[in-house]
Amino acid sequence: LKSQPTVFVIFGGTGDLNARKLAPALYNLYLEGWMPDHFAFIGTGRTKLTDNDFRVRVTGDVNKFSRSGQVKDEQWQSFAPNIYYQPADVQDAETYKEFGKKIKALEKEWKAPANVIYYLAVAPNFFPIIAENLAKAGLTEDAGCTRIVIEKPFGHDLASAKELNLLLGRIFQEKQIYRIDHYLGKETVQNIMAFRFANAIMEPLWNRNSIEHVQISVTEQLGVGDRLGYYDGSGALRDMIQNHLLQLLCIVAMEPPVSFSAEEVRNRKVDVLRAMRRFTPDTVREQAVRGQYASGWMEGQQVPGYREEPGANPHSNTETFAAVKFFVDNWRWQGVPFYLRTGKRLHRSASVITIQFKDVPHLIFSPETAETMRQNRLVISIQPEMSIRLQVQAKRPGVDMMLNTVDMVFDYKGTYQSEAPEAYETLLLDVMLGDQTLFMRADQVEEAWDLVMPILTSWQTRTSQNFPNYSADSWGPEDAEALVAKDGFHWFTLP
Ligand code: BG6
């Protein structure tokens, strides 16, 4: 990688994603010695800026958002000259000729051909326009060294996702297309694969014989913020379940791949999606719950309800919470429910996967001795706590036989004392390396849409009458509790 010159062209260079995630990630990769000897980071946008204006702007962004804190003078002086800006009207063919010239000039300076990565950090309606214009300008011809990175949302439904895949497929080969799901870049998410496939002890338990049910819960305290324009046309199911949560489910449920290669891993993940039980209007009613937040108090501050957010439609029926019970119809998972829930303005921000094991077949201790009858649980905490804990029963110290639930814990911070890289660092490095393992393949995206479509359709036709139905700082609507309670469970939350 060091000797491979690389150009990043960031469409949406003046946007939020670049400021918060991409620029800090490239800088951190640079600090840690991962960037090639020759690289350029070209931001593009409609705003007219000079290279220098953009460098000043990026310096501010990195200072504000980088996990490594304020830029360090010496390293920044050597990093900053690699940042450029190209004002661009993505509709205009001339723009793309300018990119071509700029890339050629850099290659001449470096005396070597460059890998070029086009990063589309823009609204999805621009994806086709940019891809087609890149092709027209002859910038996509060399499949060996051109890559395109696409941010979600990847389609709005199954039909639009297929259409986008078709269009991209006419211009790029699949090996050039990197569809980002940033959850896959998270250190703790990658570790689930290490945990499952680099340890023999879990595999005999990892199936319907020992596991009673699985919960995947991604709760957020934040509201919709300034993303209402996007979010109101999306909602929690499209925004989180179709992609991030189903990807987590795939990693938990997948069969062991033959090797840790992109195609093997993605084949096994798509197998899971294909095996997932499809919904009917009746099962949507029984197994899917939606919610929308009302106003409330969070950490001493009053926060508005979703319909009262600035610019909101006061009658919006967009869900800000979704909980769904899924089944994976294969040998490993037959009969094991997977409960997924996500929502905004909830009591706590935490992404946690809970594997609930079955109870002991016969309890030799009297029920009064046990604090809880649920003996074993594996809790994979993705964020903010980064840990894996196995809950077991143990004897409480004392002369009598009393049992307690205790945790056997692997905690990242305690074990490694170093900060984990941000998801975008891992993902941008993988794009440079040409490793697609952590990216979404066309068929994965389509299968996931296919699975959620009946829910979307049902919800569209049955507009909810009772929104808002949960208050800010709660754990979501009562129906979500009922969804698991009717099966005899409750949502697990970290203490
Ligand atoms: C994004 C969603 O993909 O993921 C947001 O569009 C959500 O609505 C975010 O807040 C959550 O990501 P993270 O990394 O903060 O858990």
TrEMBL record:
GO terms for biological process: glucose metabolic process; pentose-phosphate shunt, oxidative branch. Pathway: Carbohydrate degradation; pentose phosphate pathway; D-ribulose 5-phosphate from D-glucose 6-phosphate (oxidative stage): step 1/3. Residues 9-191 form the Glucose-6-phosphate dehydrogenase NAD-binding domain. It comes from the Bacteria. Residues 193-491 form the Glucose-6-phosphate dehydrogenase C-terminal domain. It catalyses: D-glucose 6-phosphate + NADP(+) = 6-phospho-D-glucono-1,5-lactone + NADPH + H(+). Substrate binds at residues 182, 186, 220, 239, 344. GO terms for cellular component: cytosol. NADP(+) binds at residues 46, 89-90, 152. InterPro entries: G6P_DH (IPR001282), G6P_DH_AS (IPR019796), G6P_DH_C (IPR022675), G6P_DH_NAD-bd (IPR022674), NAD(P)-bd_dom_sf (IPR036291). Coiled coil: none annotated. Its EC number is 1.1.1.49. The active site is at residue 244. One of its GO terms (molecular function) is glucose-6-phosphate dehydrogenase activity. Keywords: Carbohydrate metabolism, Glucose metabolism, NADP, Oxidoreductase. Catalyzes the oxidation of glucose 6-phosphate to 6-phosphogluconolactone. HAMAP family: G6PD. PANTHER family: GLUCOSE-6-PHOSPHATE 1-DEHYDROGENASE, GLUCOSE-6-PHOSPHATE 1-DEHYDROGENASE G6PD. Belongs to the glucose-6-phosphate dehydrogenase family. This is Glucose-6-phosphate 1-dehydrogenase.
